[in-house]
Amino acid sequence: MNKLPIIFAAFLFVCPLRAAAAPPVPERKTRKELERENVQLKQRLEAIQQELEWLKTDANERDSIRLQLDELYREDRDKEAAGMGGAIDYFDSPAFGGGDYQEGQEDDMLDYTDDVTDSLLSIYYLHRQIRENPQSEYNMDSVHFTSGVPDQVLIERLQKMNSFIQLPYNETVKNYMVLYSEKMPTRMGQILGLAQYYMPIFEETFRKYGLPLELKYMAIIESALNPVAVSRVGATGMWQFMHSTARNYGLRIDSYIDDRMDPVASVDAAARYLRDAYRIFGDWSLAISSYNCGSGNVNKAIKRAGRRDFWSIYPYLPRETRGYVPAMVGAMYAVNYANEYGLEPAPVQMPAHVDTFMINRNLHFRQVSEVLGVPIDDLRDLNPQYYKDIVPGAQGEQVFRLPFNYSNAFLDNQDTIYKHKAAEMFSGSVDVGRPQPATARRPAAKSSTKVQWVYYKVRRGDSLGKIAARYHTTVKNIKSWNGLRSDRIREGQRLKVGRR
């Protein structure tokens, strides 16, 4: 109690000092001066915001291509057993703005740009948009969406889709149908834009293996059709392969190539994995679930449930996997009935036709871009597996995809392209310029360097004669290279064509 008068006296003493130390009132500025200062502050703020966005983007792009993530997250054994991505919350994946990345390795950064031409989005730009604009997160175990579309109409629409894979209807499935068709129109527009380019590739692959074409919608759930997506556990690519299973299914992963990012190679591996899973379980819903959480977890759920159908084992599956099949149904529904919901594909800038070349010499994307004028982003879009912009052809024949309208120029200017700034562009590469010793000893390797292989997709009106004339070869050669017994070819058929 005796301290209170002292404190009060100190307070009275300090207050006048503070008042005396107060800064003088600044002079009042004119209206024009204030307006001019306001404009300058806005400009500085915008510049800072742009710089911040650039830094965020730069960091994200470095992270998305990092191979070391595979080894950093080995502890996720369930995921490793599955061999695939998806053992994470759907909205926490890189495709929805999530992911747990780490900084560093700035020298491995790809120098991507955001060129937008004639209001069209480049494929790469759209990949980045999908990852950087996360939607609001929902707890799909507890959320209950309502829709203006009656249940009976939703059921009838599912039945009209006539899917080879059984599409049941219940509240869980309905939630995902509403989510994809009504709750994220911008995201679905971006996915629909990418689907125009990638879905035909998937359909061709699944048809080759005799698998249901509906499996193509799994890529929407895995990565939102982003071939360079990397999950927080290291699953990579559009089909979210883990490192070990990717190698088991023949995908190449090294210092220059990650086939998990190759849309063609990765869907082929995914198709073979799903074919094997179906042979094990005899049910597509179970096979699809095993893709997400691994066959081991599905077998455990079957043992606990005492039955072998998806909805019986549903409560015993990992939480993320429980929503996997319903999410696939929801995505399939939204894509098929996009018009009914006013969902329109984002305008994506993509080549109408693509030629595939077999490269047996080292090739840098910049060599092709600077000599032929091909936008380097187009080369990255078509060849995302070469994450350092280098096709290491000297280490073995490699696939290289090029927009169709540049094919002839590429064939006619090969020597110029390969020599262009070669010393500068490959100066920092280790062993990329030296062929494998075994290849050098083979007699056939010497002659193979004189042949440029192209995988040509037959178009309407094509004939073997036209194709042979275009590539300066003969019909007899084309038939021999492709094992053809007659001159008949069909639209969409791929032919291997060589030109010396």
Main attributes of the structure:
500 residues, four-stranded antiparallel beta sheet, 25 helices, two-stranded parallel sheet, alpha+beta
What does this 3D model show about the protein?
The chain is of the alpha+beta class and 500 residues long. It is 50% helix and 7% strand. It is built from 25 helices and eight strands. The chain has helices at 3-21, 31-64, 69-72, 77-82, 123-132, 151-160, 171-183, 185-208, 218-223, 243-248, 263-281, 284-293, 295-305, 310-313, 319-322, 324-336, 365-372, 376-382, 407-412, 414-419, 422-425, 437-441, 443-448, 464-470, 475-482, and strands spanning 121-122, 348-349, 354-359, 362-364, 390-392, 398-403, 452-457, 494-499. The strands form three sheets. Strands 6-3-7-8 form a four-stranded antiparallel beta sheet. A two-stranded parallel sheet has the order 1-2. It has a two-stranded antiparallel sheet with strand order 4-5.
